[in-house]
Amino acid sequence: MRENVLRLSLFLMIVVIGLPARAENVDATLSVGALVVANCQVTVSDVSFGAYDPLGSNASVGLDTASRLSLMCTKDVIATVGLDEGLNADGGAGGRQMALSDFRLTYDLFRDGERRQRWSDGEFAVRLTGTGDLSRPQDLVVYGRIPPGQVVPAGTYSDVVTARVDF
Q1: Residue 95: inside a domain, yes or no?
Q2: Which of 36, 52, 105, 110 could join 157 in a cystine, given CB atoms 3.0 to 4.6 angstroms apart?
Q3: What are the pLDDT tens digits along the chain (167 aa)?
Q4: What are the phi and psi torsion angles at 74 (to 5°)?
Q5: How many distinct structural domains can be found in the chain?
Q6: Domain of 117: which CATH number?
Q7: Is residue 18 part of a domain?
Q8: Does a structural domain hold residue 88?
Q9: Which residues contact 51 (CB under 8 A, 6 or more apart)?
Q10: pTM of the model
Q11: Is residue 151 part of a domain?
């Protein structure tokens, strides 16, 4: 009997060893996600008119200048760029003004080189679609003009205008 048990054990070992191993597996899925945020970055250069001479060269011709505003936005983000009226704005017809104490020097900012399209917030803002390309910002030109022949005292006049980007 012992011999039969040994034969049976040997037979079972051969059968078990000879059988291919059976692997079990279970699949599971996992979600992967990210939220890409809408973002814009803006950089500006100061608007510098230089010297205004109301009795000489600017008696009958305004003083013009230009500045740059660069915008980078996430791809396909629609951005609206506006410029406020500045800290010294006259709520009436006077518009933007630079100040020296109580004295004012009127000027304005435009979206076009001919200086016909006034740049401000709302309907006079500039609308762009972001490219997402950090190596190529979207540059906008801010054209400035001081009208000729203003009667003001000599000195350094200034104002602060805020560029606002809505997206």
Answers
A1: yes
A2: 105
A3: 666 655 656 555 555 565 566 789 999 999 999 999 999 999 999 999 999 999 999 999 999 999 999 999 999 999 999 999 999 998 766 689 999 999 999 999 999 999 999 998 877 788 999 999 989 999 999 999 999 999 999 999 999 999 999 99
A4: -55, 145
A5: 1
A6: 2.60.40.1090
A7: no
A8: yes
A9: none
A10: 0.78
A11: yes
